[in-house]
Structures are given as structure tokens and as C-alpha cells.
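C-alpha cells as discussed.
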């Protein structure tokens, strides 16, 4: 008996464990057995085991395996959202029951509680949430005299369902909504005062009857409607009105979702009757006008024009309807007393930062004359007055046409000729915004983004303040970022002298920049002339904020292009004001997040600069005496400065390898470094060899995955992995001597066993494998600098290798075309070409991998010496055949035409069309055809690989000959790599110098940004405090009008709360001590902070103390140097850029 129980228990356990794998049917067989125990006889039935399944045999998993059962694998984990949906789906039936119960009411037909004889429950309210029990119609009217737009649902006993009624149709004699007298009929009512009326509310369109008050001295009809929260469609004898709640609801919906007025009215009509919409009145024409008026009136209320705010803020333009930036400098509002004493090297504390950009989605179709084609904002907001702007554009258009600058490669100057603007009088809009993404001004464009339009937008932004205040603002610093600033700013003073003479002084004070994203598509010269990265007191001003509001306003494009001109501008102005207000409300949170990030980055950049100072102690004194703001234009029209590597010769990795050995041996001999450091050159060389082997194995694995299984290839991969493992083990032993601090990372990787069977995935943990902060913490700065120098040499060698393979590939293709007749020759030639193509892919991958390591080590992503390399860049016109048709319009690819330092000097590919090609190709500037993909060099589909109709390394097809094709940058002839020892040393030292100056610039810019954010934060808080006081004063000055007084107090309380919240966030950011003592300004506190930071650099810059001033004197940054020019001292020779620009412009 015990044996049977044990068996049953075991079977139960097995069934529970493998329940999902047991197949049962209705053919179970049972066995009967009898057990005799003493005098007890027990008979039982037991199910026999099921026969094996002939077609589905499922093996039990091995005990040691951790594989998930198949049934569990296919089971998808349900998220919280899917569980919530499932909960509803499982209960659809009873939810629907509840919804259907609302279609009827059991109390219908019962006596009404009012007790009126014969009155029964027939009518209920569909809009009252509670207490909507059916009553008689008389009781319904009595309960809703203050809610006349609630729909009445009356039971139709003949049809057997509720029918919707307006309140005016509930009684046979009718009912009129009475204005005044609390709903009681006016004693002076007449038939003339009782009219049929349309009231549009959020719940639909009501065709009802209203009765105006006729008492002597009563208000006119429009005022009676407004007094009851109804906005009349007209002021003279109105017959239609919109509830305030409806207008406010639409206003917010439109601002948030960009719903069109036509669609909103359509939704109201369907809410009224979703089946017979054609029977519902259409108030769209009146709604379009009323909403335009409503937005202007709300703006006048919010911005204080109804209260007389201009008298309290005289520095702003009278009558303005603009939401001003709370963080930008505004004397008289948010500037600290004595801010004029801010020293020049801290001028970024009181700095206006404007950005400009054009948008061609906000275009407008030509419309016939429309009497409503006027903007109700009348030039007091972001758009200027048409009465001034249109004559200006007409006059300027007749002037001498603008000539494009050599760097005006953007399409903005070409768009004026595009056919897509046919039948349009406005092709887009040009907008000026500040760095806090607050819109300043907007103007229309006509067939392109001309300088004249941007001039007017800039002038309109400057004119937001009165002339007396603008004169005061001259003490502020001014930055302006524009994507074609390199061309735009050249003659701007002359243009303003002619068109805006009163603003010339403002424009002359502006320093011109190019946005940091757009500048990548400019010539390299623009980077060193107009990049904020190399502009003193510019902080980290990226200059791209003018584009950020377009994501919202572009959603309005399909609506506004069909409106009349006045409606279009008012809609765009209203949305711009709403954008500005949302940014204002969130400004302190935004500044808090930015200041936290800036603190981290400023510390990180400072530590990186310290590390470089420790790396080059003997050179800093010489470097530090160089002028950071000097720009010299060479005879080749290339800008030379301390931030740019100007040497044109490229040393090979062999020369750099030997030089590294000599340097390290010299340091070992005098005891400067440990003897094991002499192993670094061979350590880096072997590491690079290991990386190459890893890429070869990865390439073969990719080929194996996308092709037919090849045992021979598997054997090759296995042998290479074994060889690679031996290489890595040997290399690790050297690594333990040179960089023992990475041992924990190596051990952690080994213990994970993830690379046990895939050696090619093992991380070597070179300095380039770590972030900058990790390299600092692991003390890998010196090793990373040596790796950078060595990898630079190898990158040059890889470029040479790509050139050589591309030449061979071109020759093989020509040979195949001439001589590969017959199947045998054709197959052999194709095999050779395929092999060389594979080698080219690997060479490109080697270069790009080395380039990625250099970027990780601090090289700029846009370094012109080592741009990204793709298959397209290997294109070159054939040299072993005669000149082809169209060769005059083709240029060799970047791999052949780029030497690094002069990568942007070659002529534009589109010079004939007035455009400039990008000097550094990006994904956005090239066709997305076949390109190099890391890790997939061995994978190719199809018989032949093509690139825009061309093969790499040779001229294009007839189709491509029609295009202005350029040869790859790799085909530019290198000016010789056979350097002397002196030239090689100079090349390497210049690279070290550029690295040091760029690191210093990064440190300075982020320190300036951190200081600027502190000033912005404090100005923002002061703005809220000031506006709170302003609205308090407005409440007092309007004390005779209770409504205005209450509104002003409400606004004052709101700004007070915003100021308190901002102060708390500023203190949470770590600046609770930034409470300015009387007589002090923020600059005084920042001077102390900078003095403390300077002490941390004191021992690194000790040799420089004699003959130089400290940072509180005449220096812009934390690094000591004797230059303190407020603007760039650009040395332009007769052959330089200045002369070129003036001639071309």
C-alpha cells in the first residue's frame, strides 16, 4: 500500500512539472486491482499510462539544461497597460449593460414630484451629472433657468425612446431665455425683445429663443450678452452668440492640438445631431471672426494693456502684445543694480543671444481681396505692420540683387526660384528668437530667405525696446547666430545705415556666429571665424534655438496657407505667444536642468585640461603666449589660428612609432618614467594588430551568416580565433605592466564568460575604450595621448591603403571589360574583382574604426583631417582611359582630395549653380544608397554592387554623367609624407598644441556657460518678482473697477508663486549663497569663484606667472594668457578673405 502511495505522489509531481507536455484524450484505459490487508479487501481502479503519441514525440529537457520550456518561451509578458486593457476587455458585457441602461429610465410615466395634476416624469437633462431624475417639462425649465444650454431629453411614448430638445421647445407655448431679472420675465418685455437666437456652447449648437431686458436704461443687446458670458457674433442686433466657455475651450484646444476652426465647428454640429448634420446650423463664418477677436482680447488682458502697463514699464515699446523672455537682460526689469560695472572678461553675464532662421512650411497662397485681410494685432506683436513692411520689401527688391558668398551653400538663397512657390505670395517665414527659445519677431518671406527679410526681422526684434533703453543696452554684450552669418554680416551695417539708421549702433555691437550644427556644412574657415566654441565669452551657445518652435508652428501650415493674410498672422502670433508663455512658465525648471549639466561638464573639462597641462609641462609657457583671437588668412585662403592644425604633410605610423620609441627611451634614460613604459610603442602596435584580426574574423562571420555553409571557412575562423586568443593572452601580460589599473575591467570580462567562444568580441580596454571621465579616474591620460598620436599615423596609412586598392579595383574593371570574353574568363575576372572589393571594404572599416578611436580620445567628430569614409568617397575619374563626357563636372572623392588641414579649400562642386558643396560629407548631404556599415564588410547582395549608378574607384555611367558628381575626398594628392625628423617633430608638436588649445577653449566655454546660467536664473527670478509688483501696482491703479482689480491681484499672486518656486530651484542647484549684498553684483562673486579655480591650475601654470596677469585682470578664461581683445583681431592680407568677401559681395 505504501508503495502505491509513493507512486501516486511521484506521478502527481511529474504531472505538475510536465503538465504542459501531457497529451490526453477520451480513450483512457483503466485497470482494476484488489488489495487484501488482513480482514480488509479493497478494490480500486487505476488509469493506465497513455500510449505514445505517434506524430508528436516531445523529449524531456536534460536535467542540467536551463532552457525555458517551449510553452513559456512563446508566452509574452503582459505589461501594465496590456493588463489594464485586458481587464476592460474581460468585462465588456456588464459595462455595455450599464451604458444601455442609460438609454431608458424606469421612472418614466410616474407622477412628477411637483404635484401638479396630470404632470408626469417625461424629461431629463443629458448634461447634469447628478440629480438628473426625469421630471415634467415645467420642473425642468424651472431647474435650468440658469443653465439654458443644457440639452433636454424628453421621452416619446409613441416611439419608445428619448428625443433631444432645446429648452425653448419643451412647452407648447414655448420658452424664452430671459436676460436679467434672474430668469423672471422682464416687466417691459415686448415682442421686439423676444427673438429667435443661436447659442453655441461646448455641447452643441442651440436654436433657441431669448428675451432681452427692455427696462429703461438697460444695456444694449451686445452688452447684455457679454454680461451673461455670451460673445455676440456681431455688435449690431446680434442673433448668434458663443459662450465664453466654448471660446476658451477652443482656444486651448487649438493651441495644444492645432485643431482647425472648421473641424471644431464640424464636431459641434455632429454633437448636435450625428445623423442629420445638414439640418444643423453652420456657424463657421461667424466663429472664424469671433475667435480671431477673442485671441487678441485675451492677449490684451494677459499682457496688461487693458490695465495701462506701459506707464509702469516705460522701457518697453508702447502697446506691445509680446511675451518677453524672463531670463534675457532687460534693464528696468531684471538687471541688478550696478550691472554696468561688470568687467569685460565677464561680459557674458549681461549678454543677449539671438538666433535667426527661415521656415518654408509657413507659406501662403495668393488670395483675392478680402475685407477681413487685416491683423488685429496691428504690428504690436511678433509680425510687423504690413503698412510698413510691404513698402520696404518692394523698395529693397528693386535694389541690386544679392550675391551669394562662397559659403552660402544652403538652399535658402536658391529657393526663390523653386516652382513649389507658384501661386504663393508668401514662401515662408523668417524668425528671430533668443537662446531661451523665446520668439522675438517674425516676418514673411517672398521666394527665398533674402537678407532684406532677415534685416527687418532683426530690426523688429531690436525695436521691442524704446530707443533710450536700447542705448543703455549698449553696455550689454550681443551675440547673433544665423546659419548664413558668414555672408549675411559682411554688409549688414551698410544695409542698416540705408534702411534702419536709428539701429546702426545696435548692429555694430553684435558678434556674429553660425549655429553649431549648421556650421558643419560650411567651409572649415567658418568654424574658426564664427563658431561659439572658439569665441570668447560665448559660453556653450549652440545657436539652433530659432528652429525649435517650428515643430509646433509647422502643424499650422496646412491651415494658415489657406487663410486670408490677417487671420494667418493672428493665428501664428497667438501660437507664438502661447509658445513663449509655456517656455516662461517652465523657465526655472529648464535653467535648473541646464545648470546641473553645466556644473558636471565644467568640472570634467577642467580636469581634462589639467591632465593635458601635466602632460606638456615644458611647452605651456610658449603656447600660452600665443594670441587665441588672432586669425590669419594664408595665401591659400585658409584661416590659420591656434585651434587649427595647419601642417599639410602627413607622417606615417612607422615614423610616429620610431619617434615614440626615441622619446620614451630618452625619458627612461634620465629617470623621468619607469622602464616598463618603453613597451608602450610595441604595446600599441600589437593592440592595433589585434583589432585588425578581430575585424577580419567578424567579416568572415558576416559572410558565413549571409551565404552558404562552407566547412573550409569555418575551419579558417576557428584557426584565426585560436591565433587571436594567443595574441591577446600575450598582449595582456604587457598590459598588466603598462596599465595595471584596468585589471578589474579585464577580470570582470573574463568572469562573464561572454567571449569564451567568440574571442573577436573581447574588449582590449585601450584608453579609447573608456570615456573621458573614466580615463581621468584611471589615470590613463598619458597613455591615451600616446595612443592618439600612434593611431593618427595608422589612419594616414589606412587612407593610402584605400587609395591603392581603389586604383587596383578600377584597373581590374577596365581589364574585365576589355578582355573578359567567354564564361571562364568572365568568371575569373569577376572573382578577382569580388576579392578586391572585399579588401576595399575591410580597408574602409579599418580606417573608420581607427577614426572612431581617435574621436573617443578627444578628436572632434568633424575634424577635417579625418572625415568619415564611405564607399562613395573612393570614387575617382578613371586615369587609364580617355577623358569621358561630363568629366568637367565631376570631382574626385574626398579620400583623394582631402589632406586634412586644408580639407575645405577646394572649389565648390556646384559653383556653376551658385551653391557651395559641403566640405565634410554627412548622411544628410549624400544619397542613401550603398554605404559602408561597420561589421558587415563581407556581406554583399546581388551580382554587382553599385553606388548611385557607379562603381567605386571609377567614373560613372551615362546616367550619372548628367549629375555634378564629385570624386571622393581620399583622392586629393597628399603633399608628400617623406618628412624630415624636424618636420615630423613639428607636425606632432602642432597637433599637441591644437589639442591643448581646444581643451582650454572647451573648459572656458563651459565655465562661461555655467556663469551665464547663474545670471539667467537670477534674472528670471527678478523678472517674476518685478511682474508681481507691477500687477500689484496695476490693481491699485484700477481700484475703481473691481473686475480689473481682481484680475491684477490674481496675476500678481501667480508671479509671486513662480518667483518662490524659482528661488527654491536655484537654491537646490547649489546656489543658496547667491544673495547679493548691497553694493555688490554677480560678477564680484564670480571673480572669487574664478580665483579659487585658478589656484587649482596654479602649480600647472607656475612658469607663466612672471610677466602675465591673473585671470581677474585682462584674461578671458581660466588659462592665463596676455590677450583680452573684445573682438577677433583678424589679420587679413591683400590676398586674404576680407578682400575676397568684399569683391564677391
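Sequence:
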Amino acid at each position: 500500500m505504501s508503495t502505491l502511495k509513493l507512486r501516486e505522489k511521484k506521478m502527481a509531481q511529474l504531472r505538475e512539472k510536465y503538465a504542459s507536455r501531457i497529451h490526453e484524450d477520451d480513450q483512457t484505459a483503466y485497470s482494476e486491482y484488489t488489495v487484501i490487508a488482513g480482514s480488509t479487501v479493497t478494490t480500486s481502479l487505476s488509469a493506465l499510462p497513455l500510449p505514445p503519441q505517434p506524430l508528436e514525440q516531445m523529449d524531456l529537457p536534460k536535467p542540467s539544461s536551463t532552457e525555458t520550456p517551449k510553452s513559456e518561451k512563446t508566452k509574452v509578458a503582459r505589461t501594465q497597460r496590456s493588463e489594464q486593457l485586458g481587464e476592460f476587455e474581460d468585462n465588456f458585457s456588464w459595462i455595455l449593460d450599464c451604458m444601455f441602461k442609460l438609454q431608458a429610465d424606469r421612472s418614466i410615466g410616474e407622477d412628477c414630484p411637483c404635484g401638479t395634476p396630470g404632470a408626469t416624469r417625461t424629461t431629463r437633462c443629458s448634461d447634469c451629472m447628478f440629480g438628473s431624475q426625469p421630471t415634467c417639462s415645467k420642473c425642468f425649465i424651472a431647474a435650468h433657468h440658469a443653465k439654458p444650454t443644457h440639452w433636454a431629453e424628453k421621452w416619446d411614448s409613441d416611439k419608445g425612446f428619448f428625443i433631444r430638445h432645446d429648452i425653448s421647445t419643451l412647452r407648447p407655448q414655448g420658452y424664452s431665455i430671459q436676460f436679467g431679472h434672474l430668469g423672471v420675465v422682464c416687466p417691459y418685455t415686448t415682442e421686439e425683445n423676444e427673438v429667435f437666437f443661436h447659442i453655441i456652447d461646448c455641447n452643441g449648437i442651440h436654436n433657441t429663443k431669448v428675451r432681452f431686458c427692455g427696462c429703461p436704461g438697460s444695456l444694449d443687446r451686445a452688452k447684455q450678452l457679454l454680461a451673461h458670458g455670451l460673445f455676440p457674433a456681431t455688435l449690431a442686433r446680434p442673433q448668434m452668440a458663443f459662450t465664453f466657455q466654448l471660446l476658451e475651450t477652443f482656444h486651448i484646444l487649438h493651441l495644444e492640438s492645432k485643431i482647425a476652426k472648421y473641424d471644431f465647428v464640424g464636431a459641434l454640429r455632429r454633437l448636435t445631431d450625428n445623423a442629420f448634420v445638414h439640418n444643423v446650423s453652420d456657424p463657421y463664418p461667424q466663429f472664424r471672426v469671433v475667435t480671431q477677436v477673442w485671441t487678441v482680447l485675451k492677449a490684451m488682458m494677459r499682457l496688461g494693456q487693458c490695465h495701462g502697463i506701459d506707464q509702469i514699464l516705460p522701457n518697453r515699446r508702447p502697446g506691445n502684445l509680446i511675451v518677453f523672455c524672463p531670463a534675457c537682460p532687460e534693464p528696468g526689469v531684471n538687471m541688478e543694480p550696478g550691472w554696468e560695472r561688470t568687467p569685460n572678461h565677464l561680459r557674458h553675464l549681461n549678454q543677449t543671444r539671438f538666433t535667426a532662421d527661415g521656415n518654408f512650411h509657413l507659406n501662403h497662397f495668393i488670395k483675392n481681396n478680402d475685407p477681413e485681410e487685416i491683423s488685429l494685432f496691428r504690428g504690436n506683436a511678433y509680425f510687423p505692420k504690413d503698412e510698413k513692411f510691404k513698402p520696404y520689401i518692394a523698395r529693397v527688391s528693386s535694389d541690386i540683387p544679392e550675391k551669394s558668398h562662397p559659403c552660402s551653400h544652403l538652399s535658402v538663397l536658391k529657393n526663390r526660384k523653386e516652382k513649389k512657390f507658384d501661386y504663393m505670395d508668401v514662401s515662408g517665414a523668417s524668425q528671430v528668437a533668443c537662446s531661451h527659445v523665446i520668439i522675438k519677431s517674425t516676418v514673411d518671406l517672398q521666394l527665398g530667405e533674402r537678407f532684406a527679410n532677415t534685416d527687418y526681422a532683426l530690426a523688429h526684434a531690436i525695436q521691442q525696446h524704446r530707443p533710450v533703453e536700447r542705448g543703455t543696452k549698449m553696455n550689454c554684450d550681443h551675440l547673433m547666430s544665423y546659419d548664413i552669418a558668414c555672408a549675411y554680416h559682411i554688409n549688414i551695417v551698410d544695409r542698416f545705415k540705408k534702411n534702419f539708421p536709428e539701429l546702426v549702433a545696435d548692429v555694430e555691437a553684435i558678434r556674429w556666429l553660425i549655429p553649431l550644427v549648421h556650421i558643419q556644412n560650411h567651409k572649415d574657415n567658418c568654424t574658426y571665424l564664427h563658431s561659439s566654441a572658439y569665441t570668447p565669452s560665448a559660453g556653450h551657445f549652440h545657436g539652433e534655438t530659432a528652429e525649435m518652435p517650428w515643430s509646433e508652428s509647422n502643424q499650422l501650415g496646412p491651415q494658415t496657407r489657406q487663410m486670408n493674410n490677417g487671420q494667418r498672422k493672428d493665428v501664428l502670433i497667438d501660437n507664438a505667444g502661447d509658445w513663449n508663455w509655456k517656455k516662461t512658465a517652465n523657465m526655472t525648471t529648464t535653467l535648473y536642468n541646464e545648470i546641473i549639466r553645466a556644473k558636471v561638464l565644467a568640472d570634467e573639462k577642467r580636469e581634462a585640461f589639467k591632465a593635458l597641462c601635466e602632460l606638456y609641462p615644458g611647452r605651456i609657457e610658449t603656447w600660452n603666449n600665443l594670441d587665441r583671437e588672432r586669425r590669419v588668412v594664408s595665401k591659400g585662403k585658409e584661416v590659420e589660428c591656434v585651434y587649427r592644425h595647419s601642417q599639410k604633410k602627413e607622417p606615417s605610423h612607422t615614423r610616429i612609432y620610431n619617434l615614440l620609441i626615441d622619446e620614451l627611451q630618452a625619458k627612461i634614460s634620465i629617470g623621468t618614467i619607469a622602464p616598463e613604459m618603453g613597451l608602450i610603442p610595441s604595446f600599441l602596435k600589437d593592440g592595433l594588430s589585434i583589432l585588425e584580426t578581430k575585424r577580419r574574423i567578424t567579416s568572415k562571420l558576416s559572410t558565413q551568416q549571409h551565404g552558404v555553409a562552407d566547412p573550409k571557412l569555418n575551419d579558417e575562423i576557428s584557426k584565426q580565433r585560436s591565433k587571436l586568443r594567443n595574441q591577446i593572452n600575450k598582449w595582456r601580460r604587457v598590459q598588466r605592466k603598462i596599465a595595471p589599473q584596468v585589471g578589474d575591467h579585464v577580470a570582470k570580462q573574463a568572469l562573464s564568460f561572454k567571449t569564451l567562444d567568440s574571442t573577436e568580441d573581447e574588449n582590449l580596454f585601450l584608453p579609447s575604450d573608456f570615456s573621458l571621465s573614466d580615463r581621468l579616474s584611471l589615470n590613463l591620460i598619458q597613455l591615451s595621448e600616446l595612443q592618439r598620436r600612434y593611431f593618427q599615423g595608422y589612419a594616414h596609412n589606412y587612407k593610402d591603403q584605400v587609395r591603392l586598392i581603389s586604383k587596383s579595383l578600377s584597373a581590374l574593371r577596365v581589364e574585365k571589360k576589355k578582355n573578359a570574353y567567354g564564361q571562364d574568363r568572365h568568371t575569373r575576372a569577376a572573382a578577382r574583382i569580388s576579392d578586391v572589393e572585399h579588401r576595399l571594404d575591410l580597408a574602409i572599416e579599418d580606417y573608420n574604426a581607427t577614426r572612431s578611436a581617435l574621436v573617443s580620445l578627444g578628436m572632434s567628430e568633424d575634424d577635417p583631417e579625418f572625415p568619415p569614409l564611405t564607399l562613395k568617397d573612393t570614387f575617382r575619374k578613371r586615369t587609364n582611359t580617355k577623358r569621358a563626357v561630363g568629366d568637367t563636372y565631376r570631382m574626385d572623392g574626398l579620400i583623394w582630395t582631402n589632406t586634412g588641414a586644408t580639407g575645405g579649400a577646394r572649389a565648390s562642386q556646384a559653383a556653376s549653380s551658385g551653391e557651395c558643396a559641403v566640405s565634410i560629407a554627412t548622411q544628410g548631404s549624400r544619397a542613401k544608397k550603398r554605404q559602408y556599415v561597420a561589421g558587415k564588410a563581407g556581406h554583399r547582395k546581388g551580382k554587382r554592387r553599385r553606388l548611385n549608378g557607379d562603381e567605386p574607384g571609377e567614373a560613372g555611367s551615362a546616367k550619372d554623367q548628367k549629375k555634378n558628381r564629385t570624386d571622393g575626398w581620399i583622392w586629393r594628392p597628399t603633399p608628400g609624407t617623406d618628412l624630415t625628423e624636424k618636420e615630423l617633430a613639428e607636425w606632432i608638436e602642432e597637433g599637441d598644441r591644437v589639442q591643448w588649445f581646444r581643451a582650454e577653449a572647451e573648459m572656458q566655454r563651459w565655465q562661461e556657460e555655467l556663469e551665464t546660467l547663474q545670471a539667467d536664473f537670477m534674472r528670471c527670478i527678478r523678472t517674476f518678482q518685478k511682474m508681481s509688483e507691477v500687477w500689484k501696482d496695476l490693481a491699485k491703479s484700477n481700484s475703481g473697477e473691481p473686475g480689473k482689480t481682481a484680475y491684477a491681484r490674481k496675476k500678481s499672486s501667480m508671479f509671486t508663486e513662480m518667483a518662490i518656486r524659482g528661488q527654491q530651484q536655484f537654491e537646490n542647484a547649489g546656489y543658496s549663497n547667491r544673495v547679493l549684498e548691497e553694493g555688490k553684483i554677480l560678477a564680484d562673486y564670480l571673480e572669487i569663484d574664478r580665483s579659487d579655480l585658478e589656484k587649482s591650475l596654479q602649480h600647472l601654470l607656475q612658469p607663466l606667472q612672471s610677466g602675465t596677469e591673473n585671470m581677474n585682470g585682462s584674461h578671458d578664461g581660466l588659462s592665463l594668457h596676455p590677450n583680452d581683445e573684445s573682438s577677433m583681431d583678424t589679420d587679413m592680407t591683400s590676398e586674404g578673405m576680407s578682400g575676397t568677401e568684399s569683391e564677391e559681395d
